[in-house]
Amino acid sequence: MQLLHVPSSLCLSFQNVKTHEEAGLPSYEKPLQLSSAIFCSLQQQRPERSKWASRRGSALSSFTAKAASLEDVAGAPAMSKGTAESDVLKALSQIIDPDFGTDIVSCGFVKDLHINEALGEVSFRLELTTPACPIKDMFEQKANEVVNLLPWVKNVSVTMSAQPARPIYAEQLPAGLQTISNIIAVSSCKGGVGKSTVAVNLAYTLAGMGARVGIFDADVYGPSLPTMVSPENRILVMNPEKKTIIPTEYLGVKLVSFGFAGQGRAIMRGPMVSGVINQLLTTTEWGELDYLVVDMPPGTGDIQLTLCQVVPLTAAVIVTTPQKLAFIDVAKGVRMFSKLKVPCVAVVENMSHFDADGKRYYPFGRGSGSQVVEQFGIPNLFDLPIRPTLSASGDSGTPEVVADPLGEVSKTFQDIGICVVQQCAKIRQQVSTAVTYDKSIKAIRVKVPDSDEAFLLHPATVRRNDRSAQSVDEWTGEQKLQFADVPEDIEPEEIRPMGNYAVSITWPDGFSQIAPYDQLQTIERLVDVPRRVPSQV
Fold this sequence. Notes:
Distance between the termini: 56 Å
Helix content: 25-40%
Oligomer: single chain
InterPro entries: FSCA_dom_sf (IPR034904), GBBH-like_N (IPR010376), GBBH-like_N_sf (IPR038492), MIP18-like (IPR002744), Mrp-like_CS (IPR000808), Mrp/NBP35_ATP-bd (IPR019591), NUBPL-like (IPR044304), P-loop_NTPase (IPR027417)
Domain Gamma-butyrobetaine hydroxylase-like N-terminal: 450-513
GO molecular function: 4 iron, 4 sulfur cluster binding; ATP binding; ATP-dependent FeS chaperone activity; metal ion binding
Shape: globular
CATH class of the largest domain: Alpha Beta
Cofactor: [4Fe-4S] cluster
Protein name: Fe-S cluster assembly factor HCF101, chloroplastic
C-alpha cells in the first residue's frame, strides 16, 4: 500500500409498486396504519458499527388502529397452498407503510414466503429499503401479530433485512459510487454556521440507526473532518493495483478528507480544487453504503456546481443560524439546489437558543430557519441549541451523538436522522416510478416527483420530441428526425431514472433518449386512453 498523493496540478426498489387490486389481493376495510408518532424505535443497531450507541429501551407504542377481524378467513384443515399463501398475504396487507401510504405486500417488502400447512408454520422475510428504517421493529412486531391471528397458524418466523446498497441508476456512475444508495449534501453556503458539526453528527446518528455510512469532507481549503473525528489511521492510502483510494474509518463510519491526504489545507485555484474533489470522491473504494454524507464547502461557485453535477445527490440538508445575514447566503444555496433538481428535505437552525434560569433566550434573534422553510417550501425545520458540549465534542474528535447518545442534542439529531431516512425513501420511490411504460395500454405513464399530476404520453410522440444532436441540428436548429421516421407503434425497451430531473429511454433502434421531466410536461398528452391489451401467456 502507498500513501495517497494528490497532484498539485490538478454524491427497496419500488419500481413495481401495485395497488391491492393490481396485485390480486382483496383490500381490508381498515388497513393497519403505522403512525408516524412511533418513529422512535431505533434499537436494532449493528453491533460492529454502533458499539458507542447506547442500548435504548424499546419505545414501541400501542396501536390505536385495530386489525380487521380475521375470523372469516378460511380455516378448514384441508386447504390448498394457494389459499394459505393468499391468507398470509391478505393478513400482511393490513400493515401500511406510513411514508408511502401503501401496504407492505404491494410495496414488495415480503420475500421468501414459506408455508408448512401440516405443522401450521409460516416463515418470511421483510426486506426494507434501508437498515436504518425507524419503524423496522414495529413492522416485525405487527407482521408476527397479524399472521398469528390466522386460525391455522401455530408458529411464525419473521426475518428482517434491507435491500443491497445501490443507487437507482448505478450503471451511469463512476465505479466508486455504484454501491451507494443515497448521497446527502449538508450545505449552508456560508462559513461558520456549524455545517460540519451537523454533517458529522448526522452521519453518526444514521450509523447508530443501523445504516452503513460514509462522510466525504468536500472542503479542500479548510477541511474540518480531521479535527472532528479520531481515526486510528489518519492518512489515506491508495491501492497500487486498482489505483483507488482506501478510506480511513472511525467507529464504523468511512471517512475521506483532503485533510487525511497528508498535505493539510490546499492552496490552489478553483479548477484544480474541482479535480482534486472529483478524484477523492469518485476513485474511493466506498464499498456498500446506505448513506454518504457530503460536507459541502461554503459558497455556490465552481466547486459546488461540480459536486452537484458529478454526484447524483439524493437530497440536501440546509444549515443556517438565526441571523438575517445567514438567511441571505442560505437562500442562494437553496436556489442552486432547486435549479439542479436536488430536493432540500430539511433546514437545521443551529445556535438558535439557550436555556438559563428557567427561561429560553434567543441571543441571535429568531426566524431565519422558519423563513427558509416558508419561502422555499422545505418540509422540516429543526432547532439546535447553543451547547458548550457540542462545540467541545467537535474539537475533541468525538461527535456529540457518540459522547452523549441520550442527551438533548442527540435526540434532535435522531429526529433529523429519521427525517432524512424517510425523505430519501420517498424520493427514491418517486423517482423510480415517475416514468413507466404500461404495455397493456401501450402508453407511457408520467407522474413527476413533487407533483400530484399524472398523465399519459404516446411513445411515438415522446420519441419525436427528442432534442438531442441526433434529432436536431445543433447549429441551425433544423429538425433531422422526421415525423415518418418514427413508427406509430414504437415501444420503449427500457426506461431508467437519470437523477431527480430526467429519464433515459432506450428504443428498439438502440437510441438512448434523455427526457427531462420539464420536457415531458410540455409534450402533447393522450386524452383518450387506449383499451387494455390482454396479456398473452
